[in-house]
Amino acid sequence: MSVSFQHPFQEIQFDLFEWYPKFQSCLAYFIDHAQHTGPVQTVAAYVNIKLPYQKAQQAPAPGQTWNRNPSEQPSSQPEAHQSQIAFLIPYVRRLVATSFDSPTVLNGFFGDEWEAGIGPIHESERRNYLFAAKSDTWLSVKSHYDMEDGQLIPFLRPLQNVTVEEIEAAEANWSEWLAMQDWMLGPRAPTVDATNPGSSARGANARRGRA
């Protein structure tokens, strides 16, 4: 069964069932190999995000309580449990916001299939970061990229290696969001000039200013 899937505010279409095994491959690579390597541990420490094995050392197994004596706490949990607490999006977000999302780093974290398995998420998070910067102040954006348990993002950096195509795609999707805020949907959707993707965004802004 093949389904063409289009994520909201995304232009790239891909086969969802073809993508998922590649995503699982990236997840397995990250859990079973990458998180235990020196380079990945170094980057994770620098951008202040805990790896799954570090979280597993802190969290008791189901039904287990810990003594407050650190020497009596379990040092690790089975890899199967680690995979349950590992979510890749926070790692992609942290790499994007700190400009550590180069192909070399992504390959180190997620393996050779990262473009097929993580690429759509990476592109989406880069766009989300652009939207966040456009939506609010630096301090507010930083607070949204901070994480619990002391995993505060140490710094924010502008996106690196941005292409014209990426900016134009973000402009078009931002226009869709502005239209959504104004309920300009379906038959009321603004007309987009194919040669000027930002035109509908400016039109929506102008209409909001007159409201």
TrEMBL record:
Region of interest: Disordered: 58-79, 189-211
Top-level taxonomic group: Eukaryota
Species per Swiss-Prot/TrEMBL record: Bionectria ochroleuca (Gliocladium roseum)
Protein name: Ilp is an apoptosis inhibitor
InterPro entries: Verrucosidin_biosynth-assoc (IPR053267)
Compositional bias ranges of the Polar residues kind: 64-79
